[in-house]
């Protein structure tokens, strides 16, 4: 969007002033001078109109180094001085011509133009052998014209500078805003990618891992224990259906499928029961405190941590016993998952799972503690505000 200068908003007011002065001067010249000289002066004054419309108007408030600016001022001086030579009353037009010089060039150059505009009236007056009273009157008139022009012109010069500074500042702000919008858009895209990566890792990837493990277990039972093989295939089919539900929830931006139509404690209980069925280990789930609904963000975080922790038990722990506890307190909810598996060194783990859990918990202002060591099992404890 193009930023407007002061002239773009208020040039009509200046032009109304110039037009009023020009018309008044022409009428004054026609009335105060013999017909022939008055007509010549009026014609010269009216010639300033097309000169301004076709050249001067587009230069006001623009580039002050443009050669066309000086051509316009030179033509303006010639027309003014010629009109004043034809009819002295035409000097009234200086109240419109002089300020234009300040609107077009710097005030130092405008002073030169001001001298040239007033030179012809001064020479013509001095050549008429005036008396003392006339000299005083002329001096006062010249001082008024010059003083008014300088005051008006310097004021306009400041308006031009402020307008340009404002335009440059707005352009800089617009550029900065566009850059910030692009950065924000890129950050939003990156955040969405990270969110989707975490969701896919915590749901679909874990589900596919479970399906693969169950099918591998079923393959081992085929031929020698068909009933166990069918049970493993059935668990794999159920996991596939759950994965499909999770995929649909992700696409539709719905709450996680395990939370659909049920509470958090019920979903965590189902996850624990599923682990028991898949691995055949002792998996106990305990609920303490008065169950209640939490914010959607807190429930999703606790569910995802439970899914990730149990998936790690399934893939890495080789545990014989797993304990899952969900405790509701007055100001927080605590989820704790323990196993007696092979353990690991938490500082040496660089997987996406732990990093993703910490990111999720941090987003809701919670805390995550992972305690483990080789051969001593693992404990994952997460607490979020209620």
Query: What is the total domain count?
Result: 2
Tell me the structural class.
Answer: alpha+beta
Report strand %: 5-15%
Number of strands: 5
- Average pLDDT, rounded to a whole number, is 79
Radius of gyration (CA) equals 44 Å
> Which strand order spans the largest sheet, edge to edge or round the barrel?
1-2-3-5-4
Summarize the structure.
By secondary structure, this protein is α+β, with helices and mostly antiparallel strands. The protein is built from eleven helices and five strands. 70% of the residues lie in helices and 10% in strands.
Question: Which properties best describe this structure?
Answer:
single chain; Heat Shock Protein 90; 386 residues
Question: Please, could you describe this protein's structure?
Answer:
This is Oxygen sensor histidine kinase NreB. The chain crosses the membrane at residues 12-31, 37-55, 67-87, 107-127, 134-156. It holds the Pfam family HATPase_c. The chain is α+β, with helices and mostly antiparallel strands and 386 residues long. It has 2 domains: 6-177, no CATH class; 263-386, Histidine kinase-like ATPase, C-terminal domain (Heat Shock Protein 90, 2-Layer Sandwich). The protein has helices at residues 6-32, 35-46, 48-59, 67-86, 94-104, 107-126, 132-221, 226-252, 264-279, 296-317, 352-363, and strands at residues 282-288, 321-328, 332-339, 367-372, 378-385. It has a 5-stranded mixed sheet, covered by helices on one side. Helix 1 (6-32) runs antiparallel to helix 2, helix 7 packs across helix 10 (296-317) and helix 9 packs parallel to helix 10. It starts with 5 loop residues before the first helix and ends with a strand. The model has no long low-confidence stretch (mean pLDDT 79).
């Amino acid at each position: 969007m193009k930023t407007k200068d002061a002239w773009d908003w208020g040039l009509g007011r200046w032009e109304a002033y110039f037009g009023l002065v020009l018309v008044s001067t022409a009428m004054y010249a026609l009335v105060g001078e013999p017909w022939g000289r008055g007509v010549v002066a009026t014609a010269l004054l009216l010639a300033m109109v097309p000169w301004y419309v076709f050249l001067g108007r587009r230069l006001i408030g623009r580039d002050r180094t443009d050669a066309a600016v000086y051509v316009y001022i030179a033509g303006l001086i010639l027309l003014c001085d010629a009109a004043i030579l034809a009819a002295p009353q035409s000097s009234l037009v200086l109240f419109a011509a002089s300020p234009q010089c300040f609107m077009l060039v710097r005030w130092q150059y405008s002073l030169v133009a001001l001298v040239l505009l007033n030179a012809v009236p001064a020479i013509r007056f001095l050549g008429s052998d005036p008396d003392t009273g006339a000299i005083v009157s002329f001096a006062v008139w010249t001082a008024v014209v010059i003083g008014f022009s300088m005051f008006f012109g310097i004021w306009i010069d400041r308006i031009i500078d402020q307008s340009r500074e404002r335009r440059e500042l707005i352009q800089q702000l617009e550029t900065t805003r566009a850059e910030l919008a692009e950065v924000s858009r890129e950050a939003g895209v990156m955040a969405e990618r990270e969110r989707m990566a975490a969701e896919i890792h915590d749901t679909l990837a874990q589900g596919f891992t479970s399906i693969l493990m169950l099918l591998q277990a079923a393959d081992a039972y085929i031929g020698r224990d068909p009933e166990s093989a069918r049970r493993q295939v059935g668990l794999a089919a159920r996991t596939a259906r759950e994965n499909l539900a999770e995929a649909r929830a992700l696409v539709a931006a719905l709450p996680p499928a395990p939370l659909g139509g049920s509470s958090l404690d019920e979903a965590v209980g189902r996850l624990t029961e599923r682990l028991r069925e898949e691995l055949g280990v002792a998996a106990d789930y305990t609920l303490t405190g008065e169950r209640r609904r939490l914010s959607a963000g807190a429930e999703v975080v606790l569910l995802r941590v439970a899914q990730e922790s149990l998936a790690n038990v399934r893939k890495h722990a080789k545990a014989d016993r797993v304990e899952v506890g969900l405790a509701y307190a007055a100001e927080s909810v605590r989820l704790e998952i323990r196993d007696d598996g092979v353990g690991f060194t938490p500082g040496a783990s660089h997987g996406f799972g732990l990093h993703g859990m910490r990111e999720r918990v941090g987003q809701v202002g919670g805390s995550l503690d992972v305690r483990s060591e080789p051969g001593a099992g693992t404990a994952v404890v997460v607490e979020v505000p209620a």
